[in-house]
């Protein structure tokens, strides 16, 4: 079967969400080729610090080496295949040692030592048994990895969407970020693509989240104002905006599969914080650049196929495929070094509302992902259309297209990328 035959300009076959064999091929041809966001420099600040992450279903270890460079290897001992690290983060100043037979690997994967070396005399070449290295590149402190040595440069992969990472970093009045230790994660019973097809979908909120919209309106009425409401309540209220509002909003799509829509929600800082923060940004960037930073408002940039970014709320989410019918979403929040503390509290509140399984918003999505898994698993489910806004493109530029935010252009863009990746090697 040619996977590209499952995608047309207007439809996709339901099996792309339900077929375990296709999922395994995705891990090889999409997650095995794309640049995948792994970690931020601040998470491995000192030599020996490491974090464990995933590229698709492959575990990797990202380590700060002794020379200060970041290195990554597959989290697998080359002896019997045991994973080297069981913890999400830690310190390994002398390397990563397998807990089974004690083989010791350097940060770059080189096999440094095997116990009782004489047993291997003449039969083991350490140089040929290192752990598999993962190619790393950094963009403004954010580390991306790929298993494809032939992949183009990271900046080419990011394309115009690099500006969303710029937007996040430039919001710091010192130019520095630090990843907070607070991590929120949830699993859902459904395919990983469902998240990417949902987060820039502006039609579903008024239906899927209708109950939380009503609750948020009651809260606003009790408070007597919509000013100063928490980001979670602001998110709930934003989901109740009329469809015409989203029709007027812009969406930007770019290869390979990336997109974002204009901002449509927010909780403002208190006046004192806003004044101080603005003054700090002007002092660091100058008036013109500070106005540009504060005037940029994007809702959820999607870096296909692995991460989502919200600069205004200093959050990054990793979408991790576990099985064809199981996905983990992991949310990280960043501190803008030197910014008022309220900016950080605001971001923590947002990530709780956006990535906690207890959120009154995300719980609706999790239920719908499971409904999608169930319905698309029925015999004869056939072909699924994604034709909304097919003829409504507004403008095309160098590597990007601008459309109404109500369009399914971003899903069509994702499946163009999907079909391209899934072509035979």
Describe the structure concisely:
It is built from 14 helices and 21 strands. It is α+β, with helices and mostly antiparallel strands and 425 residues long.
What does this protein structure show overall?
The radius of gyration is 23 Å and the shape is globular. The chain has 14 helices and 21 strands. The protein has two domains: 36-150, Rieske [2Fe-2S] iron-sulphur domain (Rieske Iron-sulfur Protein, 3-layer Sandwich); 158-422, Naphthalene 1,2-dioxygenase Alpha Subunit, Chain A, domain 1 (Alpha-Beta Complex). A hairpin with a 6-residue loop joins strand 7 and strand 8. The model has no long low-confidence stretch (mean pLDDT 93). It has helices spanning 15-18, 20-29, 154-158, 162-170, 193-198, 205-208, 210-223, 231-238, 243-248, 271-285, 287-295, 341-355, 362-376, 409-422; strands spanning 11-13, 36-40, 49-55, 58-64, 70-74, 89-91, 96-97, 104-105, 111-113, 135-139, 142-146, 177-188, 250-254, 258-262, 298-303, 307-310, 315-323, 326-336, 383-385, 395-396, 401-404. With 425 residues, it is an alpha+beta fold. Helix 7 (210-223) packs across helix 8, helix 8 crosses helix 12 and helix 10 (271-285) packs across helix 11 (287-295). The two termini are 14 Å apart. Helices cover 32% and strands 25% of the residues. The longest helix has 15 residues, at 271-285. The protein has a nine-stranded antiparallel β-sheet, sandwiched between helices. A four-stranded antiparallel β-sheet has the order 5-4-3-6, with no helix packed on it. Strands 2-11-10 form a three-stranded antiparallel β-sheet, with no helix packed on it.
């Amino acid at each position: 079967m040619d996977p590209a035959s499952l995608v047309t300009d207007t439809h996709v076959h339901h099996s792309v969400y339900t077929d375990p064999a296709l999922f395994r091929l995705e891990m090889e041809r999409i997650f095995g080729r794309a640049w995948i966001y792994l970690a931020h420099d601040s998470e491995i600040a000192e030599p020996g610090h490491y974090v464990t992450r995933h590229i698709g279903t492959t575990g990797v270890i990202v380590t700060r080496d002794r020379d200060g460079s970041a290195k990554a290897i597959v989290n697998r001992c080359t002896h019997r295949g045991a994973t080297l690290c069981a913890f999400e983060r830690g310190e390994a100043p002398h390397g990563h040692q397998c807990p089974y037979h004690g083989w010791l690997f350097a940060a770059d994967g080189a096999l440094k030592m095997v116990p009782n070396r004489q047993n291997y005399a003449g039969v083991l070449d350490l140089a040929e048994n290192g752990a598999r290295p993962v190619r790393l590149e950094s963009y403004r402190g954010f580390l991306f990895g790929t298993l494809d040595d032939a992949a183009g440069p990271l900046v080419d992969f990011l394309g115009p969407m690099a500006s969303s990472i710029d937007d996040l970093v430039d919001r710091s009045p010192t130019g520095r970020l630090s990843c907070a230790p607070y991590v929120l994660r949830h699993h859902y019973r459904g395919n990983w693509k469902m998240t990417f097809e949902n987060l820039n979908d502006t039609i579903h909120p008024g239906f899927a989240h209708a109950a939380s919209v009503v609750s948020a309106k009651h809260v606003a009425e009790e408070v007597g104002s919509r000013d100063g409401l928490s980001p979670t309540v602001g998110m709930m209220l934003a989901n109740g905006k009329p469809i015409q509002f989203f029709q007027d909003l812009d969406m930007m799509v770019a290869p390979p599969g990336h997109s974002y829509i204009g901002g449509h929600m927010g909780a403002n800082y208190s006046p004192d914080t806003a004044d101080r923060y603005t003054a700090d940004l002007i002092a660091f960037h100058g008036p013109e650049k500070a106005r540009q930073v504060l005037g940029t408002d994007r809702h959820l940039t999607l870096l296909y196929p692995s991460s989502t970014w919200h600069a205004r709320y200093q959050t990054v989410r990793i979408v991790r495929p576990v099985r064809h019918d199981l996905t983990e979403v992991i949310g990280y929040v960043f501190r803008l070094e030197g910014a008022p503390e309220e900016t950080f509290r605001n971001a923590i509140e947002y990530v709780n509302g956006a990535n906690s399984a207890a959120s009154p918003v995300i719980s609706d999505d999790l239920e719908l992902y499971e409904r999608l898994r169930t319905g698309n698993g029925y015999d004869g489910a056939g072909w699924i259309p994604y034709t909304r806004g097919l003829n409504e493109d507004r403008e095309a530029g160098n590597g990007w297209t601008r459309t109404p935010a109500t369009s399914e252009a971003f899903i069509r863009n994702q499946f163009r990328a999907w079909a391209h990746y899934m072509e035979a090697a």
